[in-house]
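2024-03-11 09:14:02 INFO receiving multi-entity request
2024-03-11 09:14:02 INFO entity count = two
2024-03-11 09:14:03 INFO echoing inputs for audit
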Amino acid sequence: MKIYDTLQDALVDFVPRKEGEVSLYACGPTVYSHPHLGHARQAMTYDIMRRYLEWIGFDVVHVANITDIDDNIINRALDEGKTETEVAQYWEKVYIEAMDALNILPPNVRPHATDYVAEMIEFITTLVDNGSAYANDSGVYLRVRQVEGYGDLVHRTPDELAEGAGARVEVDDNKEDPLDFALWKAAKPGEPTWDSPWGAGRPGWHIECAAMALDILGDDFDLHGGGNDLVFPHHTNERAEAIAAGRSFSRYWLHNAMLNIGGEKMSKSLGNFDTIKDVLAQDPLNARALRLMLLQTHYRKTLEINDDVMAQAREGVKRLDAMVRKATNNGVDITSTERDAETFTRFREAMDHDFGTPEGMAVVFETVRRANGALDGGDEADQAQALALTAIELANVFGLDVAVGDSADDDDADQIESMVTARNEAKASKDYGEADRIRDELTAMGITLEDTANGTVWHRT
RNA sequence: GCGUCGGUGCCCGAGCGGCCCAAGGGAACGGCCUGCAAAGCCGUACAGUCGCGGGUUCAAAUCCCGCCCGGCGCUCCA
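2024-03-11 09:21:47 INFO inference complete, emitting structure
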């Protein structure tokens, strides 16, 4: 399969470190506030990739960290009179609940930065010992200009980077060079600290991910992903640390584009974000609608979100569900292994081209249409089961959570069933006024009826 | 300013040298089905400049150059 590698700036063949296995490190959040739709896009992007890679037979080790110590957490703790640990644990819980609600599979490993401080210190020691880093009163810094190919990930030379940095960054006299960045930050009053050979302090942001990724996945791991706003400085600096330590970092770099709202990146700092929790509360279909929307846009393309596109996506989800209901009513055997091989092939071709989910979704929807036609007794009637099961399987590879099931296990199912029966009796005696009255009543209860050749079925809206 | 990604129908959005008189979803319209609806199926209208202008090529939405517009990055960020 081909993937787009940020470092090479090209579509390249994906050759994993070890045949049949994929190691993926996707940068997780700093937990200090509400996770928003931008985090959802990032997490869902790698969730979808992971599901697909597993479906085509790879053993995937997906690592997503939790950054549980940083300035934002410290500030929040200060504001609220809590400990950093309390703040981080609370927001981590909120984050994980949001991820679960979005049907994002838990990563295989979810490391916490504070559990890897020893590894980070060891990493930094290597860098200091080999002359790549230097310590002073304010911390330990990496000598960026010594790093071969620093800036390659952003396609800029150190000089070009320095030029940009001058305008926005205060010059720090503690650094030999403005480009150098902190591996270790010396303790400030009131901050949580760890002991180190350079005095009490705490790790810098970039060393956290670099140390965790290498410790858990090992050198030369396959994929490193994150939002494209992390290319510089975060990923650039992680990479620099690994190179300076003489270690092979990720074989490929993946970056998802931003999610915009009102023409700008949704972000905490701009304050223009919709929290995942709020969006999910607005409509029970929104978790799946958001996923569908993301699937229908390539992960490397900026996506503008608004109420309109969410509504459109909800309709798409309903279309998927309607086919599944039709399949259920027509007695499709979910234990059957019948599938449409050609559809699988087309799906894989789409996905093997840098995770072409929009085209993959097109294949799914096209299969839904064919399955509907077949289930209604069209030209492909003999393929109905295979087509329906194929569409369902592929939608589920994407985590769209469609399932052949019955809605009869609800608490008020008996009542609804008897109302449906009453309506059908009214219909039989051509008392359409009564039939419509019952239907309206059900509609008010959030129940939608469908009169099919196999009788009347209902579902919740 | 520098780097980078992008500008495709009413909306969202694929395609990235011929298979494109441009996928898929949403909305719209007509037909079938239905007691009527809904759902579904079939069909139709939408892209006549694929941001604009040049160029390369037998062939360009797709490649090259210039311009305009927008996103992201330039040390908080997914």
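2024-03-11 09:21:48 INFO post-check: Chain A is about 45% helix and 15% strand.
2024-03-11 09:21:48 INFO post-check: The mean pLDDT of chain A is 92.
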